[in-house]
Write a structure and sequence with these properties.
- The protein is mainly beta.
- The chain is built from 1 helix and 13 strands, in the order αβββββββββββββ.
- The strands form 3 sheets. Strands 1-2-3-10-5-8 form a 6-stranded antiparallel beta sheet, with no helix packed on it.
- 16% of the residues are buried.
Amino acid sequence: MSDPAKTLSDRLIRNVHEVPLERFVRGSAYASDRVRITEGTAARKLAAAYDVVPAGMRVCPYHLHYAQEEMFIILEGSGTLRVAGEMLPVKAGDVICIPPGPEYPHQLINTSAQDLKYISIGTTDDPEICVYPDSGKFMAEANLGGAVPFEAIERVGDGVDYWSGEI
């Protein structure tokens, strides 16, 4: 449903040079100035973000998706794509396509001395399960756009028996 108060331009167009960036910092390894580009737009099946990642930092942990597909477009700078157990160099102009599935755990790392600027685009397939191989966690989420979203983050192997708690 579109917001009648927004112009057609507001619903369809974002300029990454004009939207305010928000600072994100988590521990000593994760930092970015970022904006979720598609929030407030007419997008329904895609999500996109613009990140400016300082030297030595990354935005998210090494992970894989079971439902959602991602694409990263490197606009400026260089870094390393950690994917499927390998470290691949990336640079401005590279377009990275990551399909869903356990074959492609991934993480972008700014291994350069300059800012790494990129746009990430992903599908919003729901429900979704993400696995974090380094920490042994998984996240299950569903009904992301609904009034009562579901999200659970647990460690692999900490589950209960299927019949536990049932009558």
